[in-house]
């Protein structure tokens, strides 16, 4: 019995992402990674009324972003594209606004994280058509992320909204 490792590369011969598809996935990936990071930053530093509920809701946002980034990166690999989630790449290309430094009051945290979610949703909606056109099998990932993140933005923004009479 041989102990040699056979390094047979997996090659999906049925489909390879174009540079445009790879770039669209990459835009989504860096925004999701950034959202995960700023969501945790707010989670750790939030203070004020309704702290506990918002603290837990921020974890839900982080979980969606983390799982979404993994789904997007793994889909990229499945279609022969290489994801780049290095910190320098995320900093250079994410559209998520910079997180406030230090403690953040609950209402300010809600406003900030909703703006961060909305930035990601803009990217998701911007790339959806092109991804769907080239690789309809991948568009479901984008649609699911859009739905989940829009729901979280609604949940969070409802914390600070006043009823319309």
TrEMBL record:
<dbReference type="Pfam" id="PF00210">
    <property type="entry name" value="Ferritin"/>
</dbReference>
<dbReference type="InterPro" id="IPR008331">
    <property type="entry name" value="Ferritin_DPS_dom"/>
</dbReference>
<dbReference type="InterPro" id="IPR009078">
    <property type="entry name" value="Ferritin-like_SF"/>
</dbReference>
<dbReference type="InterPro" id="IPR012347">
    <property type="entry name" value="Ferritin-like"/>
</dbReference>
<feature type="domain" description="Ferritin/DPS">
    <location>
        <begin position="26"/>
        <end position="161"/>
    </location>
</feature>
<dbReference type="InterPro" id="IPR023188">
    <property type="entry name" value="DPS_DNA-bd_CS"/>
</dbReference>
<comment type="similarity">
    <text>Belongs to the Dps family.</text>
</comment>
<protein>
    <submittedName>
        <fullName>DNA starvation/stationary phase protection protein</fullName>
    </submittedName>
</protein>
<dbReference type="InterPro" id="IPR002177">
    <property type="entry name" value="DPS_DNA-bd"/>
</dbReference>
């Amino acid at each position: 019995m041989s102990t040699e490792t056979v390094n047979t590369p997996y090659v999906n011969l049925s489909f390879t992402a174009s540079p445009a598809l790879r770039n669209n996935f990459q835009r989504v990936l860096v925004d999701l990674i950034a959202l995960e990071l700023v969501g945790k930053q707010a989670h750790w530093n939030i203070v004020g009324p309704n702290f506990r509920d918002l603290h837990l809701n921020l974890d839900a946002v982080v979980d969606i972003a983390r799982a979404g980034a993994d789904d997007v990166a793994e889909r990229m690999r499945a279609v022969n594209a290489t994801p780049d989630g290095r910190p320098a790449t995320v900093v250079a290309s994410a559209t998520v606004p910079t997180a406030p430094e230090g403690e953040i009051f609950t209402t300010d945290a809600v406003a900030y994280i909703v703006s961060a979610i909305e930035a990601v949703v803009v990217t998701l909606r911007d790339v959806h058509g092109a991804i769907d056109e080239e690789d309809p099998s991948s568009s479901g990932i984008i649609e699911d992320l859009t739905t989940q993140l829009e729901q979280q933005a609604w949940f969070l923004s409802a914390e600070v909204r006043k009823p319309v009479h």
